[in-house]
């Protein structure tokens, strides 16, 4: 109790002496029904809500924030998921941004699902490490390190690092993604257990419509590469894969469509969508933006997954996000 009182007193002192107190309250409604073939990915229904809050102070581009994020999955015990601590320092100006601590993943990094699946936003909403970005008139580049798991007698040591960005001229652009995941041992030596390394990159060139166009959209294509190894001679070096990787998307008023094709090879990323482990995968999303308020966004997706030109799976996703504060 003394520690809690001290921390509360310190936070209130900082707030009272600061010229700029800020806060954010966030609600997320999650609905995700996955009618999947078990041999490719796990069929499941994810229903729940997430509540999160942040309190902090800001001065001359320097921000300090703290809070909690809690996921409640319907049908589970209230303590099934432990609350996630949010606590970070951020500096941001017109050209650069730097964040250190435990901070929300959403809005910071946006990798293809082949490399980082969307369930990370449900179950691991924070990055625990640091993030940096530099912006120019002709593009941007950013990088992050996420310390996923600290080594103990039962937990493996895991960390993830990546870079992504875009350079462009008028409506033409090139996007790049690079990702590394290191899966090390526990502190105890377990016979037959080996270190695993996952690496990969995506490089795509494309064109998008002008900002004044009624129909917003883009088309891009390039390559996706992955490398995986299990040390100790298990894989005899890296297993490499390269495939054709393309995407097209469009939005008209409250409706949109997005289609992604990966063809030629399957890929193994630590947190990648499992569908990309087949050689040929084509996903198409029909999207309805049914709430488009300044502070409330509602989205419904009907997704079709075509696997190796033979099996068709489907998925329905519902998302409601309400943000109060700044």
Q: Could you please describe the fold and organization of this structure?
A:
The protein has about 325 residues and is mainly beta. The protein has a single domain (about 20-325), classed as Beta Barrel (Porin). It contains two helices and 16 strands. The chain has helices spanning about 1-15, 120-125; strands at about 20-35, 45-60, 60-75, 85-90, 95-105, 125-135, 140-150, 160-170, 170-185, 195-210, 215-230, 240-250, 255-265, 280-290, 295-305, 310-325. It has a 16-stranded antiparallel beta barrel with strand order 1-2-3-4-5-6-7-8-9-10-11-12-13-14-15-16. The model has no long low-confidence stretch (mean pLDDT about 90).
Distance between the termini: 30 Å
CATH architecture: Beta Barrel
Strand content: over 45%
Rg for CA atoms: 21 Å
Q: What would the average pLDDT be, to the nearest integer?
A: 92
- Following the backbone from N to C, one meets helices and strands in this order, namely HEEEEEHEEEEEEEEEEE
SS element count, helices: 2
CATH topology title: Porin
Number of strands: 16
Judged by helices, strands and strand pairing, the structural class is mainly beta
Q: What is the percent of helical residues?
A: under 10%
**Overall 3D form:** globular
């Amino acid at each position: 109790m003394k520690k809690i009182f001290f921390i509360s007193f310190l936070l209130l002192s900082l707030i009272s002496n600061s010229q700029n107190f800020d806060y954010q309250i966030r609600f997320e409604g999650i609905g995700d029904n996955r009618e999947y073939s078990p041999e490719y990915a796990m069929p499941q229904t994810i229903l729940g809500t997430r509540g999160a809050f942040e309190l902090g102070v800001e001065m001359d581009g320097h921000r300090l924030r703290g809070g909690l994020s809690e996921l409640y999955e319907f049908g589970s015990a209230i303590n099934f998921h432990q609350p996630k601590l949010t606590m970070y320092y951020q500096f941001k100006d017109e050209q650069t941004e730097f964040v250190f601590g435990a901070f929300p993943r959403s809005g910071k990094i946006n990798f293809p699902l082949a490399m980082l699946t969307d369930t990370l936003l449900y179950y691991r909403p924070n990055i625990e490490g640091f993030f940096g970005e530099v912006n120019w008139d002709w593009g941007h580049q950013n990088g992050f390190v996420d310390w996923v798991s600290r080594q103990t007698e039962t937990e493996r040591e895991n960390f993830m690092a990546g870079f992504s960005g875009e350079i462009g001229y008028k409506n033409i652009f090139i996007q790049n993604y690079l990702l590394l995941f290191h899966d090390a041992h526990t502190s105890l030596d377990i016979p037959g257990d080996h270190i695993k390394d996952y690496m990969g990159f995506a490089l795509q060139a494309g064109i998008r419509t002008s900002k004044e166009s009624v129909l917003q959209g883009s088309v891009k294509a390039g390559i996706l590469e992955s490398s995986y190894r299990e040390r100790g001679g298990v894989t005899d070096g890296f297993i490499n894969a390269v495939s054709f990787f393309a995407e097209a998307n469009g939005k008209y008023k409250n409706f949109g469509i997005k289609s992604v094709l990966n063809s030629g090879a399957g890929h193994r990323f630590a947190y990648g969508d499992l569908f990309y482990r087949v050689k040929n995968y084509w996903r198409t999303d029909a999207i309805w933006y049914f709430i488009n308020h300044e502070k409330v966004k509602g989205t419904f997706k009907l997704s079709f997954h075509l696997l190796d030109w033979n099996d068709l799976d489907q998925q329905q996703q519902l998302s409601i996000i309400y943000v109060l504060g700044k």
